[in-house]
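Same chain as my last thread, 418 residues:
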Amino acid sequence: MPLHLIGLNHHTAPLAIRERVAIAAEAVSSALTTLRQSGAADEAAILSTCNRTELYVSGDSADAVLHWWMQHAGMSLDEARPYLYHHADQDAVRQALRVAAGLDSMVLGEPQILGQMKDAARTAEQVGALGSNLHRLFQHAFAVAKEIRSTTGIGESVVSMAAASVRLAERIFDDLSEQSVLFVGAGDMVELCATHFAASKPKRMVVANRTIERANDLAHQIHGEAMRLTQVSDVLHQFDIVLSCTASSLPIIGLGMVERAVKARRHRPMFMVDLAVPRDIEAEVAELDDVFLYTVDDLASVVQSGVASRQAAVSDAESIIAGRLGEFLDWHARRAHVPVIQAFRDSATQLRAQELELARKRLNRGESAELVLEQMATRLTNKFLHGPLSAINKAESADREQLQAAMRQFMAGWDVSE
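reply #2:
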């Protein structure tokens, strides 16, 4: 079954496009279900992060998958086409390995993408969308990523989005220990950022989330406070630093809310980081005086500062991928022969059953057992050989030579010893 990888990422599409086609974490399960119900793919997995949305599928029609995706996103194919890429079979496998290893990330070698890919595979498996092809692909990708991280320097000096956020905040405020920080959301990315900010010992740290229990859990880890998301509007002015990353499909911090906060702060600067895709903070907020708003794309220049020290490891990582790519392709090629092998075995079993049944009937009629066995062996031999010999006799010259070579290989595997 052909493999396809269809997607777009920070290399090919701006944030405004990525957020339109992104599939929220809580919507991935239902999306996979409707995708498979549409008949567009036999197996499927969806990887959707702030920097990429990729559909990994096993099936015959990549076009059907692409049309389903655009319909799900409410976007025309013509509008999206300039930003899309489509990798098939070998190229799809190579891309999957590169993504898992962090070679295709905004932050070269960053480790978060591997966990996100594992989540994508786990979700696909839970809804029954992860068949043998994609299961093997993901497991192979995870093993290759582990090998690359343990044998090369690809993960050294990695500047994560979380660390970049702290670095930018330090450009605005000389001493973070005098600042108050609000984290909106309580997912993995916010937890990572909160951990980085906590190392600077801010004066106050608060986690706001729709589910207060999750907010409490994260607040306890960083020795901060928790509040409900609905309270943010009333207290936003109390915070010097605001970092948001939720799964909301619409902005949760609007222009008016920030305008009121700036006014209440008497125009003291406010540093805001929006790591969500789609965005949590309305883009117009960036136009306000005294507000420094950064999105995931804005962080690119900061996170690239550590790339030079990791470039030397890229060639080693690519070499590992090139070598391990062949292993998966060999397995996948063998999988393609399974239906033929199974059909061949079924036919042989059917012939055996027919001859055994005939032999039993003759034995029950009292015929000589020796004669029955001799004739059964002769009939089975003739039936097994009829197809291959007929194919050789009817084949053209070039094909006949290949068939004869294959026949010699088959005979070399026969065990004629007693």
